[in-house]
Amino acid sequence: MSEQDQAAGLRKWANLQRQQQQTEGAVDVAAAEPVSEHTSPLLSPTVAAAEEPTTVAPPKPKIPLIVVGLPGSGAAQVSKVKARLGQWSTLGRSWAGDPDDWDIRIVMAETSDLAQLRDQYSRWALWISSDADTFAAMFRTLRLLHERGGPRRLLALHEPHLPRQGLLNNLREAADYYLNMELLVLAR
User: Fold this and answer.
1) Cα–Cα distances in Å, from 62 out to 59, 75, 98, 163?
2) Which of 79, 102, 131, 180 makes a 20 to 30 Å CA pair with 58?
3) Neighbour tally for 106: CB within 10 Å
4) Is there a contact between 63 and 102 (Cβ–Cβ < 8 Å)?
5) Measured between alpha carbons, how far is 14 from 34 in angstroms, rounded to an integer?
6) Residue range 144-159, pLDDT digits in tens
């Protein structure tokens, strides 16, 4: 294949890319700009790839996160969890990623099939609010998880400004000492 044929193939590919981006409403990128006539022979695999039909990558699978300790299981509760993950992501917690990458599933601690869910899902979180009765309510939730075969390790899903000292440490220590459960606290 001559250099002119390669350049023509690259221009054709770039034009196709530009047309696709315009129909999708995307902004032109530098890779879609015309290529000069003096193209490197190293670009020949790109020309061959441009002739094949393009495939769209399948959507990235969402990461399941089972959350206990919320008063309900509706869309509003899922939004609360996603908002909290978004706040942590904004604070630089890279593990939180994009809140939309998570498949949030709210589970009540009273559920009879906790052991099955524990075997099926590896990521669990305990929703911790900051009201006056939180310690008693959260310890009761942890005790139910323990009694019904729930997970032994949970992320403490709490407000970003809630300090480690006090409620979070007390819950973590009580879970460890009384229930042999690990509560992961990520406070500053």
Assistant:
1) 9, 17, 10, 30
2) 79
3) 20
4) yes
5) 6
6) 999 999 999 999 998 7
Identity of the highest mean pLDDT range in 48-62, 123-137, 157-171: 123-137
What token pair was written down for 147?
Answer: 């009694």
Sequence-distant (≥ 6) Cβ neighbours of residue 174 within 8 angstroms: 139, 142
- Report pLDDT digits (tens) over 11-22: 666 666 666 655
Q: What is the pLDDT of residue 74?
A: 87
What is the percentage of the chain residues whose pLDDT exceeds 90? 47
Between β-strands 124-128 and 102-106, what pairing exists: parallel, antiparallel or unpaired?
unpaired
- Give the three-state DSSP class for 90: helix
Tokens of 105: 């599933």
Q: Nearest 5°: phi and psi at 87?
A: -65, -45
Tokens of 120: 């099926």
H runs (alpha helix) in the chain: 3-24, 44-51, 75-90, 114-120, 134-147, 169-179
Asked whether residue 113 carries a pLDDT value surpassing 80, the answer given is yes
Beta bridge partners of 154: 183
